[in-house]
Amino acid sequence: MTYDIIIIGAGPGGYETALKAAHEGLKVALVEKGEMGGTCLNRGCIPTKSFCHMAEQLHAARQSNVLGLGITAPQSITDLTPIVDYKEKIVSGLREGVEALMKHPGITTYPHQAIAVSKGQVTLDDGQSLQAANIIIATGAHERLLPIPGIDLPGVVTSTEMLNLTTLPARLCVIGGGVVGMEFASIFNTLGSQVTVVEYAPEILPRFDQDMAKRLRTGLKRAGINFNLGAAVCEIQRCEEENALQVHFTQKGKACQVTADLVLMSVGRAPNVESLQLNPEEVAFTPRGITVDENMQTTTPGIYAIGDCNGLSGLAHVATFQGIVALDHILGRPTSVDLNLVPSAVFTYPELATVGQTEQECKDAGLEYTMQKCYYRQNGKAVSMGEGDGYAKYIWHADETLLGAHIMGAHASDLIHEATILMRTGAKRHLLKNTIHAHPTLSEIILQ
User: Does residue 374 sit in the same domain as residue 422?
Assistant: First the structure.
């Protein structure tokens, strides 16, 4: 069969690009052996946020009791079945929505795995051969595991298994202080687990503004999470006496260990490229991902790679917009997408969101800047919500354009987009100051 575009992978990048291409009148083949929606919908963003929501509800109930409303909430939720059921309901409903969208008359879906990709052709695991002038690889990534003894012991899990737990672990050790690790640490701490984080870097969230990362860690520590930073994990052992696992690591030259009932391995992701039988002389790739140019095109014209499989970003929304860039190039038109300006968020409690440059990056670049510090405690809406501990900082260039914004607090993941629009348009600070914001709202924080 011959198509205009073959898309391999039905995650956010794949299925949204397929739909946009079909709306442009192109004939699209979408190849996906697994579930529609990819990792984000089925094993990542959405199910994790479902867990976050339930943890937030528990926290809110506890706060209500503190405020004297007489609402009682348990300190731990040992049976996680209702949370898993809620997660499954949300995921299945959204997945059905994606499946309905993929019934567009311009899209033909193939429930198979692509086992070979070459210029103009994709071979499927059932022997079918599909042809197209343009191929978009959107195969995503999988969890990376540390190459250490004990990694295959029962009780050592990845984020996928965490989302299906029906019993709360009394003690949870999270190896990795990145976004995924911190979200699960926050969720399970709220649910009632004793959580310990072991991170190799000197601070959690290494890619975030380190001032904000430190502030978040301080808040999470206050909530009861233990942190071991600058720690290199070397082995996981089974402790029969305690019927538990022991995570061994070195920290400042000293041998240390943490005992846990469950160990979450959260040390990043690796691209899914092995099954495609790519010829590296035609489609170059490294352990980090498939090599692409600014148009998402690989070293073979007509073959593109978007999302996690190209290693440029691990964010679902980036995969979607990389798909737009690739589609624009296929259609021969300039793209208006700016892939250098990407907001991101950590759905811990409190949330942390960021866009643009960190303060350290501004210093390293020798930029002239001023820093605006904003506090949730000075915002009427935040205080009335009982969320006065938040903090934000905005980094302004000498010419009064915004270089970066970093927000920690309630609804930070929503508030960050006002800063993103400012940066996208190159608007000056005075424009923001003279724009009326509704009162009382959290968005007024930026007016301080």
Answer: yes
Q: Cβ atoms within 10 A of the Cβ of 138, count? A: 33
Closest by Cα among 22, 16, 20, 66 to 37? 16
How many domains are contained in the chain? 3
**Segment 191-246, tens digit of pLDDT:** 999 999 999 999 999 999 999 999 999 999 999 999 999 999 999 999 888 899 99
What lies within 8 Å, CB to CB, of 372 at 6+ separation is 393, 394, 395, 396, 448
187 domain-assigned: yes
Which residue among 53, 317, 430, 439 is the active-site one? Answer: 439
DSSP helix/strand/coil, 136:
strand
Domain with 236, as residue range(s), is: 156-267
pLDDT tens string 70-107: 677 778 899 999 999 999 999 999 999 999 999 999 99
- Same-domain check for residues 58 and 123: yes
Each residue's pLDDT tens digit, 56-79: 988 888 877 666 666 777 788 999
CA 435 to CA 423: how far, in whole Å? 16
| 3-state class (DSSP) for residue 390 | coil
248 is catalytic: no
Q: What is the DSSP pairing of strand 141-143 with strand 344-346?
A: unpaired
Cα 190 to its chain centre, rounded Å, is: 20
